Amino acid sequence: MKKQQSGSSLQTKSLSISFGGHTAVNAVSCQFHPNELTVIVGPNGAGKTTFFNLISGQLKPTHGQVILNNHDVSQMPPATRARLGIGRAFQLTNLFPRLSVLENIRLVVQAHSGDGWRFFTRITALPELEAKAEHFLHLVGLSSVAHMLANELSHGNQRKLEVAMLMAMEPDIYMFDEPTAGMSLDEAPSLLELIANLKNDSSKTVLLVEHKMSVVRALADRIIVLHNGEVLEDGTPDRIMTSKLVKDVYLGNAGGLA
Amino acid sequence: MFNQKKLSLAWGNPPSRDRNQNLAYTLRITVGLVWAILLLAPFLFHDVRALEVAARICIFIVLVASYDLLIGITGIVSFAHTLFFACGAYGAAIGLKLYGGSWSAYSLGSLAGMLLAVTIAAVIGLLSLRVKAIFFAMITLAVASLALVMVSQFSAYTGGEDGLTYKTPALFKTATKLLENENGSTVKVFGTKLNGKLAAYYFLSFSCLLIFALTVRLVATPLGSVLKAIRENDTRAEAIGYRVVRYRSLIFCLSAASAAVAGSIYAVWLKYTGPETVLSFTIMIDILLMVVIGGMGTIWGSVPGVLLLVLAQYYLRDLMEIAAEKTTGIPLLPELLSPERWLLWLGIGFILVVYFFPKGLAGAMLASGEKR
User: Of A80, A189, A213, A242, which cross-links A76 as Cys (Cβ 3.0–4.6 Å)?
Assistant: First the structure.
């Protein structure tokens, strides 16, 4: 299967997964388009992260399919999907803790460029890898800590590294799982701006799980509300914000939309 | 965008980075010196035992470095390393035994042994590197035990518990004269005869140095970086596009091949191959101790680790005998220092090293973790 030139179409067809008796994601059918930023919202346990895991391959569905460019990828391992252009960042920071920040990113860059099997050329003899890694570090503002170990970073910086690692994958489909969780208020906006800019490239699809409603309204082209593993509402921000169903089930409890 | 200035004020570069860099260079220079001494050993030490010790050190550096690729770099726990070592050794031994002391017999036997080792590694790897680390360790333990039983059962080929003795290629025979003087006797340089033993030693030490250098090199490549990533976080490595099982299987096979080559080199040096020299669990435990003492995940640590343990195994008794003699008359001390208690002191020494250098000798010098 080859990557298409102008973006990828991602589709889920009645995607479901059960753990024991509990159905975490239930018959979710959605189509995602390039040049679109979709925010997935829903209360804790609604199945947002599980939905991401199904798309990126950490979990295999019990029923249903993940379709990428008209091919069923639901049985492929995560690494294969990553190379086909499905990239994701994780909600719980998921780095290479005892490697340097630069090496964390460089690993992503070299996975993308296909240099992972080179066993004789010194990594320092491939400056283009490092240059590219530094570019992404600069983008999120981590250049000055490039040589620290990832587990020595502050929580906020670890979140930035997480985002930078996904950007360095240069996928067609970006999936961010609460990228700003636990970040300070003055750091979050610039990171979100970075994410919002991604979809300006007409071939990129962006999926974002986010809790802060102000953020969601400002960024989203489309909002999907998940509840108990099912799609409750799917539409433009304006429609979602005025939906009585959503208000009752989810947002109503949280004290309104403001 | 981001407040770069504030960030660099808050973090900056770790202040101890230069010092760490210096320590890393010191480690490399020390390791280089040890190799220089090993390569000059035949001219520096004239007794037979010293050369045996030097050869053992060279071989074990390769074994420990290749084992460190697994346990320290990639995070795979295996107890089958002596099995691969034995494959190479028995391959060479059986070749030399069956077809006489020729180069073709030696190289064919070694190659067959290495292929066997890689095949076993590939089968174990592809079948079981998907399972949890602890199960994998148990499987390798089972296969290694099986190999021990098979070697003693198939005694027609392996010599059973007694092992095999055989002829080596003519070049390596002690009676071979590399250079003759006008009287027809072997030329001596610095009191060392230029005979076949010397040729065998240089074959061994240079091969070991080459494999060690290649192992060090491997860690500095993109592949080495991927292996460390798998050790650190295999799900993330998979998520960014690396097929973890393939990489694990590859390194398991590479490490097996390297151990097998060490085995065939050792076989031609010892002119004897038996379970006690290449396959026993005592050797596996020695390798584990050497990796831990040297520093897991450093590769360079294999040199100090092996050096310390092998020297202790060979010379601690002699040292204690001298110490016991010197302390006669003082109560208790001579009894404590009597040579038969050498294992006690080795054990205490080991505990002290682990206590004071939990990351191993080389690990302590590379304290800030991964260097570029």
Answer: A80
Nearest CA in chain B to A169: B240
For each of the domains in chain B, give its residue range(s) and CATH number, in order of start. 27-365 (1.10.3470)
**What are the structure tokens assigned to A197, written together?**
């800019």
The alpha carbon of residue B151 is apart from the nearest alpha carbon of chain A, in Å, by 34
Question: Does the beta-carbon distance from B372 to A88 stay under 8 Å?
Answer: no
Cα Rg, chain A, nearest whole Å: 18
**Mutation site, A93, A107, A165, A173, interface B, largest B CB count within 10 A:** A107
Identify the three-state secondary structure at position A86: strand
Q: Each residue's pLDDT tens digit in chain B (372 positions)? A: 344 444 433 444 444 566 778 888 999 999 999 999 999 999 999 888 999 999 999 999 999 999 999 999 999 999 999 999 999 999 999 999 999 889 999 999 999 999 999 999 999 998 887 787 889 999 999 999 999 999 999 999 999 899 999 999 989 988 888 888 888 788 888 888 888 999 999 999 999 999 999 999 999 999 999 999 999 999 999 999 999 999 999 999 999 999 999 999 999 999 999 999 999 999 999 999 999 999 999 999 999 999 999 999 999 988 988 888 888 888 888 888 888 888 899 999 999 998 999 899 898 888 654 443
Name residues whose C-beta falls within 8 Å of residue B300's C-beta, 6 or more positions apart in sequence: B27, B28, B31, B216, B294, B362, B366
Of A108, A122, A149, nearest to B221 by CB-CB distance is: A122
Between CA A91 and CA A96, with CA A95 as vertex, the angle to 5 degrees is: 165
Greatest distance between any 2 Cα atoms in chain A: 62
What is the assigned CATH class of domain A10-94+172-251? alpha beta
> What is the DSSP-derived secondary structure letter of residue A92?
S
CA distance B27 to chain A (A): 20
On whether the CB atoms of residues A56 and A223 are closer than 8 A, the answer is: no
Contact between B237 and B230 under an 8 Å Cβ cutoff? The reply is yes
Give the amino acid at A145.
Answer: V
The pLDDT tens digits for A176-189 are 999 988 888 888 88
CB atoms A147 and B372 under 8 Å: yes
Q: State the nearest Cα–Cα gap between B250 and chain A, in angstroms.
A: 10
- Complete DSSP assignment for B183-204: TSSBPEETTEE-BHHHHHHHHH
Mutate to test the interface with A, among B221, B225, B240 (most CBs of A within 10 A): B240
Query: What residue ranges do the domains of chain A occupy?
Result: 10-94+172-251
Query: In A, which residues are within 8 Å of B220 by CB distance?
Result: 122-124
Hey, are the CB atoms on A79 and B229 less than 8 Å from each other? no
Nearest by CB: A144 against B11, B217, B241: B11
In angstroms, the separation between the Cα of residue A249 and the nearest Cα of chain B is 34
